[in-house]
Amino acid sequence: MVHLTLYIRTYCHLCDDMQRALLPFRERFGFTLQLIDVDSDARLERRFDEKVPVLMAGEEEICHHFLDEEALRNYFSQQ
């Protein structure tokens, strides 16, 4: 099973939007999704800061700010 990570901030409306936008893709592709609040770790805050939300597969960035559906489909076509 594929595991993706979504780096977020708890007060971020773009983060909420991306979480909702991922729902149909989770049903279609069956991946797990871990949510990590960048503000809980100074290293993550420095790394992602204003880039959140950031959707990652391991160290590979799929997209940030908004869900790039084409990039996500391309990622899964390579799996």
Describe the structure.
- This protein is of the alpha+beta class and 79 residues long.
- The protein has a single domain, classed as Glutaredoxin.
- Helices cover 42% and strands 27% of the residues.
- The protein is built from 3 helices and 4 strands.
- It has helices spanning 13-29, 42-48, 69-77, and strands at residues 3-8, 32-37, 54-57, 60-64.
- Strands 2-1-3-4 form a 4-stranded mixed sheet, with helices on one face.
- The longest helix has 17 residues, at 13-29.
- The relative contact order is 0.24.
- The mean pLDDT is 96.
In short:
This protein is an alpha+beta fold. The chain contains three helices and four strands; from the N terminus they run βαβαββα. The termini are close together.
What is the name of the CATH superfamily? Answer: Glutaredoxin
- Unreliable segments (pLDDT under 50, ≥5 consecutive)? none
Largest sheet: 4 strands, mixed
CATH class: Alpha Beta
Percent helix range: 40-55%
What's the arrangement of strands in the largest beta sheet?
2-1-3-4
Question: What is CATH's topology name?
Answer: Glutaredoxin
Q: What is the beta-strand fraction?
A: 25-35%
Number of helices: 3
Structural shape: globular
Structural class: alpha+beta
CATH architect. name: 3-Layer(aba) Sandwich
Q: How many DSSP E strands? A: 4
Q: Write down the secondary-structure element order.
A: EHEHEEH
Number of domains: 1
Mean pLDDT: 96
Tell me the span between the first and last alpha carbons.
10 Å
Radius of gyration: 12 Å
